[in-house]
Design a protein that fits this description.
It is built from 4 helices and 8 strands, in the order ααβββαβββββα. By secondary structure, it is α+β, with helices and mostly antiparallel strands. The protein has 2 domains: about 50 residues, no CATH class; about 130 residues. It has an 8-stranded antiparallel beta barrel with strand order 1-2-3-4-5-6-7-8. Strand 5 and strand 6 form a beta hairpin.
Length: about 200
């Protein structure tokens, strides 16, 4: 028959107290030896917190500036001729949310190759270090699956949106420039479901 294994005996209470005391003394010693650094760090915390808070609030407020519908022929700009917008049938709608971007895009490729979609969806993020740039995926549900159609780099200059492909894609042929439609109220910023039929010939 196997011999029973001896059970470990609990440490005497005085040893437990000694180990605990040694541990606490070690921590106190480390704190005392590093007091100048700790005090300096504690003084810096409120400053760094305010700097981070200011940067975040600035970024958050600027991300709202992305909201809108961007098209190639908006009405209402006095400097329309100098904006050098692209002569293309593309519409982009953007809804920002705390650094994230969602929205829609319509392009000739979508209208001709994926007419059942009417538009594709956007998702991405505003660049934390440059609130005038964002990378987005163009995606949608096709045959019951999420399919990424391409990736775009968006750059915003005032009311102008510059769009570039950043992955091999048929979505856009070249870099294009659109401008925000200044005539829309917030609740009117929605995709034009008839954009393809009105702008893209069969």
């Amino acid at each position: 028959m196997p011999q029973p294994q001896p059970q470990p005996q609990p440490q005497p209470r005085y040893k437990q107290i000694w180990y605990l005391t040694t541990f606490i003394v070690g921590i106190i010693t480390a704190v005392i030896l590093n007091t100048p650094n700790i005090l300096e760090s504690l003084r810096k915390i409120p400053i760094e917190f305010e700097k981070t808070k200011t940067a975040f609030m600035t970024w958050k407020s600027k991300d709202k500036e992305w909201e809108g519908k961007y098209i190639s022929n908006p009405e209402g700009y006095l400097d329309f001729e100098t904006m050098k917008l692209s002569s293309v049938s593309v519409e982009i709608v953007i809804w920002p949310n705390q650094g994230g971007i969602s929205g829609t895009i319509v392009s000739p490729y979508i209208c001709k190759e994926l007419p059942f979609l009417k538009y594709a969806q956007l998702r991405g993020n505003v660049n934390f270090f440059n609130s005038n740039k964002a990378e987005v995926e163009v995606w949608d549900h096709i045959s019951g699956k999420q399919v990424v159609l391409g990736k775009l780099l968006l750059s915003k200059v005032d009311s102008i949106l510059i769009i570039k492909n950043i992955s091999p894609s048929l979505l856009l042929n070249n870099e294009i420039r659109l401008a925000k439609d200044p005539n829309l109220a917030k609740d009117e910023i929605n995709p034009d479901y008839d954009f393809c039929s009105k702008n893209i010939s069969s």
